[in-house]
Predict the structure.
Amino acid sequence: MSETRASEYDAIVIGGGPSGSSYAMTLARNGYSVLVLEREEFPRFHIGESLLTYTADVLDQLGVLDRICESGFVLKKGIELTGTDGHFRRLDLGQIGDDLRPWTLHVERSDFDKILLDAAAEEPNVTVLQGARVTRLNRSGERIDGVRYEYEHGEHEAAARMVVDASGRTGVIARTLDLRKTDNQLKMAAVFKHFGGVDESNNPATEGDIQLGLHDDGWLWAIPIRPDTMSVGVMVPASILRAARPEQLFDEHLSRIPRITQRIKGTTVVRDLTGENNFEYHCDTLAGPGYFIVGDAGCFTDPVFSGGVLLALTTGRRAAEETARILGGDISEREAADRYQAFFKTGYETYYRLIRAVYDNRYPAAGREMRFVPSENEARLTGAGWWGIQERLKATSGGPFDTKEEIEHKELVRALNGDFWAEDNRFFQRLREEKEWTLFESFEPVYGCPVQSVRAANGHGDRS
């Protein structure tokens, strides 16, 4: 990080989380100068701890995966879905197929985010200021062309061709321009704790798996963010949380899921109860004169499948790529904004539709069976949806995906691991037919996986 600060940059990034760090690294490597203004001092707490397999690939492409793997986080190879009667089903990430990465990581976000920001600060063209709070957006007409910020007890100003909102829920540009909208169908809230002293011998699940505990009023997560530390959260409709005492609600809902309570037996609370409310929001406008909005600053939804970090990294990287094209004179700002917005909306709305399917009982592959995990006998009798496919796969575990049912299962595994830009994923094709789940104003989708396309261009082989 440079101690000498200029007053003009190619880009200013508001926020140093994953989306801001991804943007800064990508643009700097194209030869442009970046100022990152982060309000807090890292490390700092954040939720969003279980990464998708595609997220690990993006981190690899950014050159930081090895550093993250060396930081003592927990390897993730599966997802367990369990219910109130103790029955469960396991989704093996190895069934993603086609030599795609069959593993990823759970992370403690305070350390994970610091690794990313430190990596950005190491870039020769990047200046990172922590404890720098943006107080005003500077404009020339409709164009945002700089910021005023407080840093080390002083007021400063900086100008740039592009200003990027990577400020997460704070949404500096999104809120200033009044761009945020809220979906009235997903009014969810969460309360969560961290438990220390985890004893693996108490774990009824596969080591390293995330557990999703499903019941009539909501769901729980249990994520091993360190070998001896577990993040446990309770997700409910916001109306239920408002009507309850949060601590009492947490304890009562946790007691409903026996496989999670068994996993944290004998632990102690190392992070007291914390809450997050009103999860879903989105912006129809994600780029404009002099600005891009990336990651959680633009859109955020229910975290049931941990898509937030992937969307943050990919939208940050894509916004930087479009910025480089603008600065290089290869594309107009208007065209770049349209391309970027279509990319962001395609990925986010696909993920949003997946979340809606989880809460919709009409979708047996992702809805009812996910919420009310059937018993072993019920799964054998019905042979329906996801769980019926899972049963048939057991006989051919490790073999090729030859049958129609097996192909559908592979596509579902990919859907749950970040395949949000896939045009040919039949699971997502079906979800995109639901008109009532349309979130944005009309736009032209942009298909083509931002992970696999880079992987193919670089000639990567098996990432296992």
